[in-house]
Amino acid sequence: MSPAQIGRVNELYVDDPDKDSGGKIDVSLNISLPNLHCELVGLDIQDEMGRHEVGHIDNSMKIPLNNGEGCRFEGQFSINKVPGNFHVSTHSATAQPQNPDMTHVIHKLSFGDTLQVQNIHGAFNALGGEDKLTSNPLASHDYILKIVPTVYEDKSGKQRYSYQYTVANKEYVAYSHTGRIIPAIWFRYDLSPITVKYTERRQPLYRFITTICAIIGGTFTVAGILDSCIFTASEAWKKIQLGKMQ
Prior knowledge:
The protein contains one helix and 15 strands; from the N terminus they run βββββββββββββββα. By secondary structure, the chain is α+β, with helices and mostly antiparallel strands. The protein has two domains: 6-201, Acid-sensing ion channels like fold; 204-242. The strands form two sheets. Strands 1, 2, 3, 4, 5, 6, 7, 8, 9, 10, 11, 14 and 15 form a 13-stranded mixed beta sheet that branches. A two-stranded antiparallel sheet has the order 12-13. Strand 5 (60-65) and strand 6 form a beta hairpin. The model has no long low-confidence stretch (mean pLDDT 85).
């Protein structure tokens, strides 16, 4: 069937679209810290359901950078569908460094399935390419995420579940009564109650025919206007020429 006969309907509604997920969301994180050794880098996860995990290591790896001076962390993990945070820090290190450098580049942060569909340009990896290499090395970074459930349903009715997100961020050096607080890179998230749904549908034949007729009709209309303009200009020119001869 011609691509012109395929349409997409966008909807917004309030619901949890993926009720078979067990109340969890898959997360993929890829981040480089070029000035922090891999043995110091860790991922911590906590949320309002009481989860508090320090030094998460399942389905993750740390790749040395800059001759071992830096580290690239890549991990896949899941979070509960409740407000919470995960953060890259030195909290799980055996010995805390004196001045950990948290400058970084975020290569990827995404939630749920990867949607590779033409003409859907959502914020599925809104932080991809975020560069904080020139920030204060001793600063913490807060990324405040609002996660939006997103569903894509193809013509066969098969659904894929992903998540877009908006982000705001701030950078700061924190202090307590005991002195400066060890910096970290925080991703604080909450879920939007609104779900975005993209549904792919075949357009009815009559709509396709109507579109073609409209295009043809528009072409003839433009051609008629051009012909009328040319005729009017020609008549005016003839009158001018006759005026010169009299």
